[in-house]
Amino acid sequence: MTPSMIALLVVVGIALLIAIVYMNHVVENNKLEKARLKVELNDRIRRCSEVNETFPGQLMTPGLKLLLTRLELNATQRLLLLQKSSTALKAQVAELNGLIAKGESIPVNNPPNPVLTEAKAKDVRFLLETLHGQITRAAKDGFLPTNEAKQWIKEIRHLLVVLHIEFFNNLGKLALQKNQPAQARLAFERAVQYLRKQPVPAMYNAQIKDFEAQLARANAQVLNALEPSTGEVNELTEGLKTDEADADWKKKAIYD
């Protein structure tokens, strides 16, 4: 075997080794990407399902329910492509398709869940933030058209305002029921300030007027609570008279 042939075999061997290493690298990367995508899609399915099932019924609409079901279906179908033999995913896809086929007649079974505490308001706000993230991601993936995504993001902002309206309204009324007009006044004041700071406050003129009326009533109760009662006035008057009488007696004793 000539030196040139030996050199050629060495070169071919090195090339084959590089090719094998490269192919192994590609296969490993594909495995890692597939595993990463599975985790991501399962997370998206979980998030969509959580919002779909736990969002307060008084804020849920058929349109929103339909959107969440579409987002969940998209992620489930993509996951099924990675796990083609999964009977559970096939059944889930069939169920979601059946719901979507109902259109705006899709059942909305979320029970009303009044927002009575700040902790509850934060929980609902977190669900809205989760939904915002899912819409943004779906638009980035090309599943949702840009215009539709923008409309839904606008709707989420509106729902956030509606959430605050319910929270402040419940907070104020609860304080009044507990005979705490000062706390009620604070809640209604915060509501008016929040609504006036919105980009288009005119959208909420009716709610602003309603909160202003409740604020006036709560303020009147606070002022009434500060006014002394008739009995207190009489006691105060009698106390002043006694003080005056004592003062006159002392003056008379001094001058006498």
From TrEMBL:
Q: Indicate what this protein is called per its UniProt record.
A: LemA family protein
Whose protein is this, by species?
Answer: Pseudomonas psychrophila
Q: Which residues cross the membrane?
A: 6-27
Q: Keyword annotations for this protein? A: Membrane, Transmembrane, Transmembrane helix
